[in-house]
Amino acid sequence: MIKKGTNLLVCALIVVFQSIGQSDFNNYQPLRSRGPVPKDFSTSTLAKIKQDNREDLKSLNGNKEDFFVEQINYSIDEILRSGNVTFGDTISKYIQQLGDRLIAGETDLKGKLRFYVYNSTEANAFSTRQGIVFVTTGLIAQLTSEAQLAFVLSHEIIHYQEHHVLDLFEYATREKFYSYNEKARFLSNYSRENELEADRLAVKMVHDAGYRSSEINKTFDVLLYSYLPFEEMKLDKTYFNTAEMYVPEMYFDFKRNEISAKFKYNDYLMSHPNLAKRKEQVTDQVGKFKDWEKQILYEDSLQFFYIRDVARFEYVLNKVYEDEPVEALYAIYILEKKYPESTFLKNYKSQAWLDVMKLTVKKENTSYSPYSYSLNRKKQRYYEGQISILNQFIMVLPKTGKLVMGLRNIYDVYQSDTTNSIARKCYETAIQLLVKSDDFETEKFSSRNFTETLAYLRSLKQDTSSKSQLHAAEWDKYAVIENQSKGVTEDFGIDSTKFYMYGISDIIRDSNFVKEFKHSALKKNLLDKDNDDFNLMTDAEQEEAEYFKYDNEVHLNMDSMLVFQPAIFETNRTEIDVFKTFRTRDLVFREIYSNAEDLDIQVKSLSLNQLETLSADDWNDYSILQRSLTRAITDHENDYFVLDVPNLNGIHSKFKTGKLLFMEYHHMYSPDLNFGNVALFTVLLPVGLVYFPIAILSGHYSDWQFYVLDLKTGELVLDRSYYVNEPASKHNIGSRLNGMFHQLKQTKNDY
């Protein structure tokens, strides 16, 4: 039992830790790798395959054993090098310490398990045959106690200890109708028996480690409701109100969507037992140990709550990068209660509102075409619980209202610290979006805020002089229309549904805003004129202009470049050929350097070709670029995403080059030699002499994708793809790269 004196010490430490945590989160920086690079990261996949200890694979025949070793090492390395896994960071060190504590009594496990954080909003944890345990930030963000995390880690440790991954592989290989890729996917799941066994044995591990029994079953509540935000907090009806902006409470009187998750559900066709069965079994297992209270060694440490807040800040980061502004804004609302001065939260709130504005303008500019709209529209989410109120508030706002709310929040963040480069960039980008919208005209907005307007209208009513005693009857049609558009009712009241018309009175009077708005409007007018000129062209002239533009886009005047780790895949229909993939990857690298040297292009590389030379800083740069490229490629409006710009500028300064080249190359060999054709053309041998060589040679499919990211602006300036029927030979790869590099080095031509 913890003594009273120890409790007092813990309380004192809590006060100290809270003050330190407050300071940290006010200036929060995203997770970064630190210290020596672990062998899990610095050892190549091929070396891991070669060094793999196969003692536990004796039950598999040769082919299955080779496939298992190749695929499991390749798959786990893909996760480790995804940019989402860090080492030596605050969370990874914490879960490593907790994991070591849990296996203290397991002598056969000491030194075999490594614990890493996987940065994702999904609530998940999984272990691997190699002894790696991953825990997502999304799961940690949802937990309410260290004991729950201890149970999760114990569950994954048992999966490793009992060789459940191998058991599942044997089951999957018996199901012959699955492809190898589908079988590999099974490796991240477990059978009902495996799950129940892991739960049972994890209870003992948590008991022996000295945690409370009452927290274990609460872990299943976390899993059940993990699709919801990490807190269920009612939205304050005055949250958006400031001295300049007033949002009527009626906008928060929506009915909250009910939470629908249930513990008992039909699990007949599922690999996992339902949570009700797992919870019932764990309750029985907990009852088998009668000395829980006597064994308590660990209460919820303050460190856990600090780590959980780190995970929640990362949750905000991931939601913004995933272009989920509603979820990001709700999470920020929760965290602002505790950290109202956090620069991180302010910056990410600005970006989230930029995404709301971007989507509003995109819908507006594509609404005329049902085809383009459906292609660009993000599937609408259905929210449950308190977040549904925020979602309904944003959804019910008209386009102008969304733009005004975005501008208001972004402007206020920038004005709170004009030295904040991200806040400044968000503000400038918001103005660009406003200019693009047909629904935003500064002269339509009131020069008085809501409170000032209300007072002004009351004074008019109270004025007894005949000239100023205005009535609706005296308004002509045009005055009525103008006043109604600004939200003034016929009895000198304010139409509360148009509250936003009074929310930016100070902004439209700000001379700097007016100047930047006019400057952006001028640039837009020039673009509109170019579009008008294009529309006046003949079809032939338009076709020529479009071809010229397409051809000219790749001329980026690049005499130097930073080459990012290429994504190379060699497949045979649905299977990845691991060894062939790495051979082709090496070939691509050699051809990159060879062709760049021939064309006098300076190449610098941030790749995994020489893993043993990479430092923690290199891995951090690698992770930043992975995240930036993913967002840029996914979102074709990436020029409105500004959070990456400072980090990209830092990489630009470090490598002394302004452009980053990233390429994807997928080669597949799948000749059309099905049984029917082979039988037919074997009989018709003269025809077969022509058919078989053609079928064999034409079975190669090569798909190239080239991306260029501007490290100064964060903009994706090139997205070009090529699809050809050719083998992955030195000549073909070299020719494609030579042609691309030659174009990239050219200067744009004037039309």
Share of helical residues: 40-55%
SS field, number of helical segments: 30
Largest sheet: 7 strands, mixed
How many extended strands?
Answer: 11
Q: What is the CA–CA distance across the termini?
A: 81 Å
| Principal-axes shape call | globular
- Beta percentage is 5-15%
The radius of gyration computed from the alpha-carbon positions, rounded to a whole number of angstroms, is: 31 Å
**Unreliable sequence segments:** 1-21, 171-188, 367-377
Alpha-beta content class: alpha/beta
What's the average pLDDT?
84
What does the secondary structure layout of this molecule look like, with pairings?
Layout: H1 4-26, H2 39-42, H3 45-51, H4 62-80, E1 85-86, H5 90-102, E2 114-118, E3 125-127, E4 132-136, H6 137-142, H7 146-161, H8 164-174, H9 180-185, H10 192-209, H11 218-224, H12 275-287, H13 302-321, H14 325-336, H15 343-366, H16 370-376, H17 387-396, H18 399-416, H19 421-436, H20 450-462, H21 477-485, H22 505-508, H23 511-535, H24 539-553, E5 560-564, E6 567-572, E7 575-576, H25 578-598, E8 602-606, H26 616-634, H27 645-655, E9 659-669, H28 675-683, H29 685-697, E10 700-710, E11 716-724, H30 730-745
Parallel strand pairs: 2-4, 5-8, 5-9, 6-9
Antiparallel strand pairs: 1-2, 3-4, 6-7, 9-10, 10-11
